[in-house]
Amino acid sequence: MEAVQSARDVRGSGRGFRGPGAVREQHAVPAVVLVGPGEPELASVVRNEAFQWNVVGQYFTTAAVLDGLLLTLWLTGAVMVLGFLFGTVLAVMRLSGNPVLRTLSWGYVWIFRSTPLLVQLLFWFNIGALYPTLGLGIPYGPQLFTIKTVNLLGPTLTAGIGLTLHESAYAAEVVRGGILSVDPGQTEAAQALGLSRRRTLRRIVVPQAMRSIVPTAGNMLIGTLKGTSIVSVLAVHDLLYSVQLTYNQNYQVIPLLMVATLWYVAVTTVLSGGQYYVERYYARGTSRGLPPTPPQRLRTRLTAFRARLHALTAAGGRPAR
User: What stretch of H or E contains 145?
Assistant: First the structure.
């Protein structure tokens, strides 16, 4: 009687035993709930006439957009290279035993990380108000030549200087963190072999620190690519400013913004793929085997699919017994 009553209770609660397929049914329902709601939103984006995809395709490869894209890429590359070069010097100064160098490096990082990037760009853009002219000459003597600051620092050069000084402060902390992640025993072993401090840093410490530096540096690269859009406030003809000039003429705001968005997504995707391979390169020696690359995974899956298809074909071609 107790067994019968227990069975009735289970059926009443709706959680009775339903066989081996019960687990699959429980997992299948959330999958439908998660995937299903995304389909109408995606369809609304693709079919929404307000996006005007024909206009997007018309302006996607225009000369103005491509010129703005090239300037954005050039500005991103120059800022990252110069920023990490200067940031590496700041990181070495921060880790040195000289208190003056440590204080200067800490003060630089503190100032440039404490002020917004837009404020820094506007400050450098109006630097002529503080220093109208720049000159070269003998101290307390005659000036050899002078030049007006307004003529020397244009919008593009001002944006490059402001972004480089800003990124170098963050790059200094990234490099310093990577150097500190290396086991101190590596430095001690290099010193025991008679290597100089500079050579130890260049040949022993930095290659091992790259494993910790590359992921954050890749994130900074993508952030710098998107952050260059802020230079549009200085009338620099980057990708966003070129798009803005275009839709101010034809009033096609949404399609032109989609053009800029698609280009940013495309470039970010390429950079993310490059970051994956750079991380994989510096991960050598840290594990027994490197993980397969996406093309290798794709080839493995295709090979398995062909083998399964061949097995099904061979099984279907056999005569029935």
Answer: strand 143-148
User: Residue 233: exposed, middle, or buried by beta-carbon count in 10 A (0-12, 13-18, 19+)?
Assistant: middle
Sequence-ordered alpha helix ranges (H) in the chain: 2-13, 21-35, 38-47, 53-59, 63-95, 99-114, 117-125, 149-152, 155-180, 184-192, 197-200, 206-227, 239-250, 253-282, 294-317
Q: 318: pLDDT confidence band, cut at 50, 70 and 90?
A: low
- For residue 34, pLDDT over 50 is answered with no
What stretch of H or E contains 144?
strand 143-148
**Which two tokens mark 42?**
């995606």
The DSSP output letter for 37 is T
Kindly state the average pLDDT of the residues 41-47: 67
Rounded Cα gap, residues 121 and 158, in angstroms: 7
Report percent pLDDT > 90 for the chain: 34
| Token couple for 34 | 């998660």
Going by C-alpha positions, the residue among 231, 80, 66, 63 that lies closest to residue 154 is: 231
> So what's the pLDDT on residue 263?
95
Distant-in-sequence, close-in-space partners of 215: CB < 8 Å, separation ≥ 6: 275, 279
Q: What is the 3-state secondary structure (H, E, C) of 291-307?
A: CCCHHHHHHHHHHHHHH
pLDDT, tens digit (0-9, with 9 covering 90-100), for 293-314: 777 778 888 888 888 888 888 8
Q: Which two tokens stand for residue 300?
A: 């493995």
Average pLDDT over residues 147-164: 84
What is the per-residue DSSP string for 147-181? Answer: EEHHHH--HHHHHHHHHHHHHHHHHHHHHHHHHHT
Q: Residue 178 in contact with residue 212, Cβ under 8 Å?
A: yes
Rounded CA Rg of the chain:
30
